[in-house]
Amino acid sequence: MQKEKTAWAAVLILAATAAIGAGCYCWGKRTALLHYQAEQALNILLNRSELEGLGEHKETIYVTGHKSPDSDTVGSSIAYAFCCGSWGMTRVRWCSGPSITRANIS
Fold it and tell me: Which of 57, 51, 62, 59 is nearest to 92 (CA)?
């Protein structure tokens, strides 16, 4: 009889520990998600405010990379030029060095 009570007590302690652990895990994941979403919204506001701080663009924006560009420079330039175009700005993608013809993925 005593062994049964001890076994049931151990099961209850184990179940309570698992429930508390699961609750803490879910709470931590939710908190991390909320912090990520808040940081993402702030980054969008900051980037947009920087562009708006430049005023009206009546001239062409030249989106460039560096000399001897690698694939991340070319991709970033293309993406930024696309964003500027979607915001109604006139833009030209321009490469300051010879562009790569294919990325070497090993």
Answer: 62
**Distance between terminal CA atoms of the chain?**
66
**Of 82, 81, 64, 62, whose CA–CA distance to 73 is shortest?**
64
The pLDDT of residue 99 is: 55
For residue 95, what are the contacts with CB-CB under 8 A and spacing of at least 6?
Answer: 64, 65, 69, 74, 77
What are the residue boundaries of the structural domains of the chain, listed by start?
1-55, 56-106
Question: Which residues does the chain have with pLDDT short of 50?
Answer: 105-106
> Model pTM?
0.38
- Backbone phi, psi, residue 97, to 5°: -140, -175
Residue 93 pairs in a beta bridge with 63
Residue 105's pLDDT is 47
CB atoms within 10 A of CB 70: 12
Q: Return the SS3 of 68.
A: coil
